[in-house]
Amino acid sequence: MPFDRVIKGGNVVTPAGAFVGDIGIxxxxxxxxxxxxxxxxAKVIEAxxxxxxxxxxxxxxxxxxxFMGAVSADDxxxxxxxxxxxxxxxxxxxxxxxxxxxxxxxxxxxxxxAEGNALIDYTFHVCVTRWDEHKDQIRGMVDRGFxxxxxxxxxxxxxxxxxxxxxFGTLEKMKEYGSMLLVHAESARVLDELIARYHTPxxxxxxxxxxxxxxxxxxxxxxxxxxxVAWSEATDGQLYIVxxxxxxxxxxxxxxxxxxxxxxxxxCVQYLVLDDSVFDREDGHLYACCPQLKxxxxxxxxxxxxxxxxxxxxxxxxxxxxxxxxxxWKGDWTKIPMGLPGLExxxxxxxxxxxxxxxxxxxxxxxxxxxxxxxxxxxYPRKGAIQVGADADIVIIHPATRHKVVPKEMETNADWxxxxxxxxxxxxxxxLSRGEVIVDGxxxxxxxxxxxxxxxxxxxxxxxxxETSAMRMSRGPLSPLRVSDLEAAGIA
Length: 492
Ligand code: URP
Ligand code: ZN
Ligand code: ZN
Prior knowledge:
Number of helices: 17
Shape: globular
Mean pLDDT: 93
Number of strands: 21
Distance between the termini: 12 Å
Structural class: alpha/beta
Low-confidence stretches: 468-492
Bound molecules: N-(aminocarbonyl)-beta-alanine, zinc ion
Radius of gyration: 21 Å
Strand content: 15-25%
């Protein structure tokens, strides 16, 4: 069959393992994989000496989010360009209702932000912020093509906070609809108390950014995860813990999964590569994010959890604020907009600190960045793997070439980076999105507005694998897809 494009001679990572060879593309789809495809008449992309991996899904992103008195500085133009440069071909943002809005209005608002601006494909998690009003709207959002919902256990002042009743009720609905509840797990009341204790004018003056680590000990996250897990266990509703940052949380997830609780955990790359010593820096306030950065022991446990399987996904929680926006704190920690830039560096950081440092294999990294998120979020097999029939979302990276992180040379609107000066391998030399080259020679060449919204009908483990709870109990934690041979993966 003649191909439109052939990617030639790369180390191609498929769900069945890696092979050196070619990928044939027709239109938006992968149509063949093989050792030496006939490229007559096709546009050829040379990939020898490179890894050819599935496009990354960053399933935790906040673009142009009004939050803590500011609006996050990456929008759908800069955020999706940043993603593409970092090999991200799909993102999932959070549609959060503005004051008084229905779930449907929230989604409409987020569609308006994205349409005509997005370079890569996208969808939204729908945020349930006022249970009594929103609970009867959830079914309608499933019918509109949304299969993941989100509740925050904190952020009362933003009007976003959910209580146990809301989580329990939503998880019951998730079980019924085959959809999934994402939870930001931090223990609100105790956190409020610790903030009130520590964030006094005297303490803020004395400790500055270091107060962040003092007011958010690990038990703030661990208790909340434990409670959310209890409601998942009680309802058998699919739960997904976002941005898990602690060793204790990871232990809770492992134990819950071994009991067959349908809980999945995500961490973010900043919790894997940064620790709370950054708060001792003069510009330590820039690193304010929620949950805050933890200790080296937590990092090591999260890496171990990725390897062991109890941590299924690495994302970014991109919520960019510029230096000027962060400056708004003027020494008052309660006024600082929380969040970090991330889309552009997710793959380079995970590749450099994970694969090159020997913590993950290349295949494991692809499972955590692409295949697992696609499966869990109801986008597989269209997204998440290099296989026949999938969208041709493909990233070509050099195994060793490093690029220095220089904020002013990046696509993000952030004028600083937590990784400023770091030498990272794994930036995209070439990114293809649905068969179109959108990054070429490390430069973004794709046009704003070509990205498409992705409808979904299911999410979580049962929807993606056909597993029942009983099968899950006998299997243990989610592991990367295992296919016995190349043929089964559709390799020609
Ligand atoms: O600091 C963060 N993470 N900002 C975004 C909101 C959230 O909690 O995810
Ligand atoms: Zn959060
Ligand atoms: Zn977030």
